[in-house]
Amino acid sequence: MRDELIASTAWLATKLSDPSVVIVEITRSDSARAAHIPGARAINYRYFVERRDSLSTEVPSLDSLRSLVEGLGISDQSHVVVYAPEAPMATRFLLTLHLLGLDRVSYLDGGLPKWRAEGRALAREEPGASRTVARGRITPKPRLETIVTASWLDARVGQPGLSLIDTRTTGEYTGTGNRSGMPSAGHLLGARQLEWEQMFDSAAPLTLKPRNELRALFSERVTPGDTVVTYCWVGYRASATWFMARAMGYDPLFYDGSYQDWQRRQLPTRAGVVR
């Protein structure tokens, strides 16, 4: 278990004045935030994904990501703590940081709801207010090998040594459902289903389940020694299973094109469930 990848609200509360700790809030829009963790820098989710080659959620160029991240005041030695209204929004940004080669990154367990419930300090932003931070400096250490392609997977599906995790709903996984009106024919051969919500407390959707339960979720789906690859429909939900696989001690890969790419290439799928 890589505990350093998960930050508690109690720990973060002691680090609010630490200049090496950069708190990032992922938002759904550019509008002013009503309340946030003091010092948190906001970034709209759509700024670190792009539509490319008919695929809707792809990793932009590393040069553009570096500029974006440096603009948040993040440098090589920063410890970046991320929270968002929905866990995959945070984990997709954590994937971005990983691709740039940054290692000191953490998901804030419980996020803003837990912080607020504990009665901790909140900052408010007046409409029209702007806040500038000193630009960071990152020396890129690209990890593009983390992203796998359809051709890479097509040569390996169904073969020993690969544990695929499908982060979609049961209907999408079995081929009986759809996503936003787009029907699913099933899953990649051998893929095991793990919806990202299964990793979180149902009563507090941003709070992770106990560590032993998380370990069990992955050990039930991953053969020891296998290469772990996560995917979903567009590469959003699978960022959560990818990040948590890292936290569990695996060295997972990520199929960014996901089922949307696989389907458009008319590559083989399987309906039903893995037996």
Describe the structure.
The protein is an alpha/beta fold and about 280 residues long. It is about 25% helix and about 20% strand. The chain contains 9 helices and 16 strands. It has a 5-stranded parallel sheet with strand order 1-7-6-2-3. The model has no long low-confidence stretch (mean pLDDT about 95).
Strand segment tally:
16
Question: Which strands sit side by side, in order, in the main sheet?
Answer: 1-7-6-2-3
**H and E string:** EHEEEEHEHEHEHEHEEEEEHEHEH
The stretches of 5 or more residues where confidence is low (pLDDT under 50) are none
Largest sheet: 5 strands, parallel
Shape: globular
Helical coverage, percent range: 25-40%
Strand content: 15-25%
Overall average pLDDT:
95
Radius of gyration equals: 19 Å
Number of helices: 9
Distance, first to last CA? 28 Å
Structural class: alpha/beta
Topology of helices and strands:
Elements: E1 6-7, H1 9-13, E2 21-27, E3 41-44, E4 50-52, E5 55-58, H2 62-70, E6 79-83, H3 87-99, E7 105-108, H4 111-117, E8 147-148, H5 150-154, E9 162-166, H6 170-174, E10 178-179, E11 182-183, E12 192-193, E13 200-201, E14 204-208, H7 211-219, E15 227-231, H8 238-247, E16 253-255, H9 258-264
Parallel strand pairs: 1-7, 2-3, 2-6, 6-7, 8-16, 9-12, 9-15, 15-16
Antiparallel strand pairs: 4-5, 10-11, 13-14
Gist of the model:
With 275 residues, the protein is α/β, with parallel strands linked by helices.
Q: Which properties best describe this structure?
A:
275 residues, alpha/beta, five-stranded parallel β-sheet
